[in-house]
Specification:
mainly alpha; 2 domains; two-stranded antiparallel sheet; 4 strands; 10% strand; rod-shaped; YHS_dom
């Protein structure tokens, strides 16, 4: 998985909120008074007042800032948990920190969970039209004895 870009997400959410506010105001102008939600807009946007053209721009800015705030809070939290729990991003970060070549093809050893370069694998097995790579002959032998057990990955196995 790829980390989220703070700038892109923040501007996207801010623009979405400002556009939504504008659509709500236009809807309120085109429909009867009983069908629109000007009370709600005034409640969530403290400086906004329905029917005041100059304050429309204040509401627009407030909406934009709420969206920007959401992006500025959400993206770092998302990226933090992505790095914490996504094995692919952890693997890439680990490889970069250790100075491994990033162009080599890598696979996860299904038995121990170690990431290995395919050309440096100590053993391979072919199962269900796929080739699996192993860091040691022992891992290969364990996989060959019960391949279905190792198909769920290291985290999902029962002891």
């Amino acid at each position: 998985m790829k980390t989220l870009n703070l700038f892109v997400v923040t501007w996207s959410l801010a623009s979405f909120c400002a556009l939504s506010f504008t659509i709500c105001v236009i809807y309120g102008l085109l429909t009867p008074h009983s069908l629109h939600m000007h009370e709600f807009l005034e409640m969530v946007l403290p400086a906004y007042e329905w029917g005041s053209f100059p304050l429309f721009f204040v509401g627009l800015v407030e909406s934009f800032l709420y969206g920007a705030y959401a992006g500025l809070v959400y993206v770092p939290i998302y990226n933090f948990f992505l790095k914490k729990w996504d094995p692919e991003s952890n693997h890439t970060q680990y490889r970069e920190e250790k100075g491994f070549r990033t162009t080599a093809k890598t696979e996860m050893d299904r038995v121990c969970g170690m990431w290995i370069e395919t050309e440096a694998a100590k053993g391979t097995s072919f199962y269900k039209d796929e080739t699996y790579y192993f860091c040691t002959e022992e891992c290969k032998a364990k996989f060959d004895q019960n391949p279905d057990y190792y198909m769920v990955g290291v985290e999902g196995r029962k002891p």
